[in-house]
Structures are given as structure tokens and as C-alpha cells.
Amino acid sequence: MAWVYLLVAGVLEIVWAFFMKQSDGFTKITPTAITIVTMIGSFALLAIAMRSLPLGTAYTIWTGIGAVGAFLVGVFVLGEAATPMRLAAAGLIVSGLVMMKMSAH
Question: Model confidence over 39-53: pLDDT tens digits?
């Protein structure tokens, strides 16, 4: 169940990162509120997952989901560039996440 919590925490990290961008420096109330609520949820689920997962594994996978997810949202929702180098970097992050998961006990 810890892996499910960690996955949801990572997805919430993507959500709060997107809405932080939409908040325009915390000047817009609704995106700011969504940022704060999803941030709290993300941290809470990460903490629950860390009860049974190693710190390094849980934190690395949580940040990796957030990083790659935010990149994908940036490309597909916000129209940011998907250059070969950015795609390769995202691919390297994903490969690192797969290796981290495979090494977890």
C-alpha cells in the first residue's frame, strides 16, 4: 500500500506545481488554495509511505514523479518546448526511478 500512497503523493506534487505556476506568485486565490491543499496532501501521503519505504527510495521516487510529471504538463498543457535534450533528461530521470524501484526491498 505504501507504493500506492507514494504514487498518489507524486501525482499531487504535479498538481501543486501546476497550480503554483497558475497562482502567479500566489496572487490568485483559487490556484493558491489548490496549491496549498494539494501540497499538504502530497506531503502527508509521502510521510505515510515513508513508514515502510526507505527514505532515499521514497523521496527519490516522489521527486522524480513530480519532476517528470511537471515536465509533461509543461509540454502538453502549457506548450513548453520538448527539445531532444529535455526529452533525454526526462528519460534519464525515468530510468533512475525504475532502477530505484527495482532496488527497493
Answer: 999 999 999 999 999
43: Cα separation from own chain's centroid: 11
CA atoms of 42 and 40, how far apart (whole Å): 5
Residue 100 one-letter amino acid: M
| All structural domains of the chain with their residue ranges | 2-103
User: What angle (nearest 5°) sits at the alpha carbon of residue 41, between those of residues 51 and 7?
Assistant: 60
Cα 21 to chain center, whole Å? Answer: 14
On whether the pTM is more than 0.85, the answer is yes
| Contact indicator for 45, 5 with CB cutoff of 8 Å | yes
